[in-house]
Predict the 3D structure of the following.
Amino acid sequence: MASKEYDNGEITVVWNPSICTHSGNCVKGSPKVFKPKEKPWIKMEAETSKSIMKTINTCPSGALSFYKNKK
């Protein structure tokens, strides 16, 4: 499965479902952002970029990553 990107203008979150181990760290860390039962499942507007980045850094599989967008 191909990776998907979610953008809020400031950062872009990249999700690679093929390596996701479903640890749940994302949902536990930012339940307003990561909503696996909804589509799209990542709600970038629900929290600050800083908060989203902090949660992504807890992803043990590396399935979630991010990069800062150029201004």
